[in-house]
Write a structure and sequence with these properties.
Largest sheet: 2 strands, antiparallel
Shape: globular
Strand order of the largest sheet: 1-4
Strand content: under 5%
Radius of gyration: 20 Å
Structural class: mainly alpha
Length: about 350
C-alpha cells in the first residue's frame, strides 16, 4: 500500500512536468531518480552483486525488466498522459492488474484461485465505474496506457523471479540503465527548453515514486507473488485519482465513492484467500531476502532472526501448507486443491 501511494503521486505531477519536458526526458529523470532513491539502501546492504555476476537466467530476467519496465513502459505511459487527463490515465492503470494476471496465469505459473479472480473482477469493476463517470479520453491515449501496462506486467513477473540480487540492487540497475538510455535519447531528439527546477522535480518524483515504491513492491512480490502483490498495488490508480482531484482540481463524484467501496471489499476478499496442496521442493541453492520459517531453518549464529540475505541451500522437502507463488512456490496449478 505504501508502494502504491508513492507511485500514484507520479501521474498528476508528471502531467504538470510534461509541459516542460518531453516523454523521453521525463522518463529518464524519473528512473535516474529511482536509482538515486535506492542508492543508500544498496550501500547499506554491504553486499554488492553486479548483474554480470548473476547466472544467465537471472541476468536475462533483469535485462527484460530493464527493457520492458524501465524503458518501454514509462515511455508509453507518458505519451498517453500527454494526450489524456491525469485522472483518466490513473484509472486506466488498472489494466496493469489484468496484464499481470493474464501473463501470470499463462506464462509464469502464478495462478489465481477463484477468490483471487473474484477480487480481481471487483477491482476492475471499480475501475469501470470510475471510467464511466469520467468518460473516454481518446482511443490513442488508452492504447498507449494499455501498452505500458502490458510492459509492466511482464516486468512484474520477471522482477519477482530474479534470484541472487536484492530488490534495491535490481531497482538501482533498472533505474541507472533505463534512465540514462531515455535521457540520452531525449536530449538527442529535442533540446531542453524548460525551467531548471523541472529537472530537480523530475528527479525527486523518481526517488519516491519509482525508487522507494519499486523496492517496496519487489519485496512484496517476492513474498506474495507478482499477481497478488499487483492486486494490492491496484490501489495506486484510485489514489492517483484522489491526488489528481487535489492537485489538478477535478471533482469527486458518486462514482468515486462506489469505486472505493468496491475496491475495499475486493482487497478484503483477497486477504481471506487460502491456497494449499501437497507439493515438493527440490534441492536448491540460491540467495534472496528471507526470514527463518519452514523453508529457511538454518541456524548460523551470525545470522540475525529478522530479514536478511545470504546464499543458502534448501533440501528436498515434501509437505502441505497454505502458500502463495513466491520464489519457492511456482508450480503447476490444480483447481481441486485450491480454497
Amino acid at each position: 500500500m505504501a508502494s502504491a501511494l508513492f507511485f500514484s503521486a507520479a501521474t498528476p505531477v508528471s502531467k504538470l512536468l510534461l509541459n516542460s519536458l518531453t516523454a523521453y526526458q521525463l522518463a529518464g529523470l524519473l528512473y535516474l531518480g529511482a536509482s538515486l532513491g535506492v542508492l543508500a539502501v544498496v550501500i547499506r546492504e554491504r553486499k554488492w552483486i553486479a548483474p554480470w555476476h548473476l547466472d544467465r537466467k537471472n541476468m536475462l530476467r533483469l535485462l527484460g525488466a530493464v527493457i520492458f519496465g524501465g524503458v518501454l513502459g514509462p515511455l508509453a505511459l507518458l505519451a498517453g498522459l500527454r494526450l489524456a487527463s491525469a485522472a483518466s490515465v490513473s484509472m486506466w492503470l488498472n489494466l496493469e492488474l489484468v496484464a499481470t494476471a493474464v501473463l501470470g496465469h499463462f506464462l509464469f505459473k502464478d495462478h489465481l484461485t477463484r477468490k483471487s479472480w473474484l477480487a480481481a473482477g471487483g477491482i476492475l469493476s471499480a475501475a469501470v465505474i470510475l471510467a464511466a463517470g469520467e468518460g473516454a479520453a481518446g482511443l490513442r491515449a488508452g492504447a498507449l496506457v494499455a501498452a505500458a501496462c502490458i510492459c509492466w506486467g511482464i516486468d512484474n513477473h520477471l522482477t519477482a523471479l530474479i534470484d541472487g540480487i536484492t530488490p534495491a540492487q535490481s531497482t538501482f540497475w533498472k533505474g541507472l540503465v533505463a534512465g540514462s538510455t531515455n535521457l540520452i535519447i531525449g536530449f538527442s531528439l529535442a533540446p531542453f527548453i524548460g525551467p531548471a527546477w523541472s529537472l530537480g522535480v523530475g528527479l525527486v518524483v523518481g526517488v519516491f515514486s519509482y525508487g522507494l515504491s519499486i523496492v517496496l513492491y519487489i519485496t512484496s512480490a517476492q513474498q506474495l507473488g507478482a499477481t497478488r502483490s499487483q492486486l494490492i498495488f491496484a490501489s495506486a490508480p484510485f489514489l492517483g485519482v484522489l491526488l489528481s482531484i487535489i492537485i489538478l482540481g477535478e471533482s469527486f463524484t458518486s462514482q468515486h465513492t462506489a469505486a472505493v467501496v468496491l475496491f475495499s471489499a475486493s482487497i478484503l476478499l483477497l486477504f481471506r484467500e487460502q491456497h494449499f496442496h501437497p507439493h515438493i521442493h527440490e534441492l536448491q541453492w540460491h540467495d534472496h531476502p528471507h526470514t527463518h520459517d519452514e523453508h529457511h531453518h538454518h541456524h548460523e549464529e551470525s545470522v540475525p532472526p529478522s530479514w536478511h540475505t545470504h546464499p543458502h541451500q534448501h533440501g528436498r522437502l515434501t509437505h502441505r501448507h497454505p502458500h502463495v507463488p513466491d520464489l519457492h512456490h511456482r508450480h503447476a496449478h490444480s483447481a481441486k486443491n485450491n480454497q
